[in-house]
Amino acid sequence: MVRAAVLPAVGAPLEITGIELPEPGPGRVRVALAAAGVCHSDLSLSNGTMRVPVPAVLGHEGAGTVTAVGEGVTQVAPGDGVVLNWAPSCGSCHACALGEVWLCANALNGAGAVHARRADDGSELHPGLNVAAFAEETVVAADCVLPVPDGIPLTDAALLGCAVLTGYGAVHHSAKLREGETVAVFGAGGVGLAALQAARIAGAARIVAVDVSPQKEELARRAGATDYVVASEHTAREIRALTGKQGVDAAIECVGRATTIRTAWESTRRGGRTTVVGIGGKDQQVTFNALELFHWGRTLSGCVYGNSDPARDLPVLAGHIREGRLDLGALVTERITLDGIPAAFDNMIAGKGGRALVVF
After folding, report:
1. Residue 262 belongs to what H/E stretch?
2. Are 90 and 105 in contact (CB under 8 A)?
3. Cross-strand partners of 355
4. Which residue, 228, 288, 236, is CA-closest to 263?
5. How far is residue 137's CA from residue 2's CA, in Å, rounded to a whole number?
6. d(CA 79, CA 67)
7. DSSP string, 264-305
8. Max Cα distance, the chain (Å)
9. What is the 8-class DSSP label of residue 298?
10. Confidence of residue 50 (pLDDT cuts 50, 70, 90)
11. What residues contact 286, with CB distance under 8 A and at least 6 apart?
């Protein structure tokens, strides 16, 4: 039996309880978790913004050590450190054929499988976003693990599984930020802090962080922000004032709210680029009129998983970490146990802190 954070139903509180995991069958891997990040996507699963089968073990950002492998698994062996990949690409769908593996049509097929059973009543549990990282141990498909790059501690490596790939990718792959450009990052949570560091790595001339909380300014500046704006109805005007009344070249929206998306768009210059990373609900309607779309010539694009290919991007990120350009520890504002996840959810709702990291 292992302890895990279980979502019994959409909208219900998480339950920290015992679960029974099966032995890894063909093509599967058992992993003892070292750490798991508490991501806003987990909150979106719990409140129904994103839908997966429930009851489920949540958690999708994690790293650990392989303890056993099933028949046919050759890419990893017991004792190997691995990063969990919650969105493995199938390699054969239309998106994968185009090289857009982050849009793989089959990436979440595993979410409907039976992952484990509750120890108290034997009821079936699903694996959330494929990997069920909010548990002391998990069993996943072999394509849901990637080797931890050399020199990266396992607890830090957990953040590579979502926050860093998403934030870095939003800046480098989606917004394609160039050296000397200006950028605004909306939301200074785990993904936003990763995006700020990515903007610094890209050589941005001005990096504006925006958040509702004045308390996050020091955190944002340590990540690379040159300016900090507390969100208000005047945010777009303040950002334009910081950039010679032109607006930034690119805006990265990490919140997922209609008003924030609209503000990010208005904060960019004529011809600017807005990348939406935040996951909003269906009720969050963003409106534009036809004339302003023509006149401003701006682009607005969604961004899934940072438009990243983990197998390609993890070695690149590892290089930045080893050279001191990317600081994973700077994303973490609290280290908790499994029992602390519900409070971490409350902090996200309240807009407090960066990434909470469950350390096993």
Report:
1. helix 258-266
2. yes
3. 332
4. 236
5. 7
6. 6
7. HHHTEEEEEEEEE-S---TT------HHHHHHH--EEEE-SG
8. 63
9. -
10. confident
11. 258, 261, 262
